[in-house]
Protein 1
Amino acid sequence: MSDNYIPPERQDINNAVIPESTEFYEEMKLLVHLAKNYPDDVELQLFAPLSDEEIDGFEKRTNIKLTDELRDLYKFTNGFSLSVANLDICTLDQVEEMLDTEWEWGDTKNYLYLGDMIGDGEIVLLDLDTNKIITNDHGDEDEYDDITTLLGYNITVFLDGEIEDEELEEYLGEWDDAE
């Protein structure tokens, strides 16, 4: 990141309003619930949301069209940090700074860097050709349909059996039924 980096303004999770119409509503609602009730186990930092105009400005400057889901995410929070899975989704300013990054594995695919999962050494990318979310660990890729699926995967893998919570158990049961 640049030497002039200014950390984004944080959003208070106690006052965060997750739009019910978003694809990630259930996952984010659960993560906010867990962060509020189990702060020693789940830390979630949300950043101040962006306006449509700010997102439009990013798209115009970069000539990149975000998916509707990503637009909704950035209107809810300009990135986030989740201690579970060490998942960090960057602010749009950080995403823009990473546009010229050359990846070490020499891949020439049309990717947009979105963040990382530090504990696993993976980066989170948007494949601009397919609009799929990709996690990449030095060339080894996993594909997810969207951010919602990535969040769901992280909830099931990193929280299953870790916390006794009725809402978590209900969510995990729904995830099992979907498979």
Protein 2
Amino acid sequence: MPRPLGELEDAVMTRVWQWNRPVTVREVLEDLQQERSIAYTTVMTVMDNLHQKGWVRREAEGRAYRYTAVSTRAAYSAALMNEAWSTSDNPAAALVAFFGMMSAEQREALRDAVRVVQYDDESATEAPAEPRAEAPAGPSTEPSPEASAEPSPEPPAQPEAEDESAGPPRPPGR
């Protein structure tokens, strides 16, 4: 379970996430030094700690390492929110309180995110489209492999309605 990054860890990870490429300790150090006085060994230790915690992976390049983020800042933030929410004894109340803290801009972003998730859920439940060039319109008239060789006493199936609001087609004989 993720725990919040410390101030310096967050400053280092912010650069790794923003640059979105393998980075060296020296690059991060030089950028951090624009804001504060910090030693090379401090940044090296923080990056090593982030590697040990699984936040970055590293590859040797000569005598140095290049570090790359394992996940995105959005995934990190989402994991923290999920962690906080799941530890609540009343998750609904926690969400209501959280939504109450949001700005109008954040609530609009939330609405957009919910629409995306709903769209993804709807797309995932739809059956994959099959090629229509060779398939006949309507139910198949070929027996399934499990069907017996005997003809079915049920009447043939009715063609499917064009109107999607009619609901799913009913099986023949019902």
Protein 3
Amino acid sequence: MSTPSGFDELIHPATRLSVVALLASTEWADFGFIRDSLSLSDSALSKQLHTLEDAGYLDLRKEGSGRKRRTRVRLTERGRTAFDGHVAALRAIVEGAAGPAAVTGIGTGTATGPGTDADRAAAAAPAAVAPAGAEAGR
């Protein structure tokens, strides 16, 4: 099986995929909100954010000064397009893995349909996601 169109090696690592998925559901998010939602250290999150920023997938804005300084992050249009393409590619992989034998239940040991592991994997998303259109970490 070949890699489907849209699969993005940059987004695919679990931490980056979680960051982008979290940002896909909001306009802007504070660094601390992302860090806490994904249970990451400051340095681990910073490294992933800068990698995604260098690829043009994120905008990072530093606001304030001194102890009141905060970093806000948002997904760029390029990042949103890459994420949507990657999710579609992951769904194609999951659907392709099911194949004709899985649809009939032959040789798989399980039946497929709503509520199967494949369905849950295709619909999986990070648990801590802000509502669409809402600003996270205010």
Protein 4
Amino acid sequence: MAVGVLNGALDHGLRVPDDISIIGFDGSAVAEIVRPSITSMQQPMDEVGRKSVEYIHQLIVHPDLIIDEDIILQHWLVERESFKPRV
């Protein structure tokens, strides 16, 4: 999605990051190779997968189980060229 926003901004004559900053989520490899490269929030995908499998397993073993909890995993910002702090 962030690459689409980047392309749309450039198509409309906006300068990234001077006129608009773009921040993606999950930081696909594409974020690193487009220009300007896209700043993105990263999360530990291996841990996301592990937690997902744990919950699926619990639901298979206990089909009536209601899982009512929020899980917040460690995440971090990877700053690249598409973001410029505003003063």
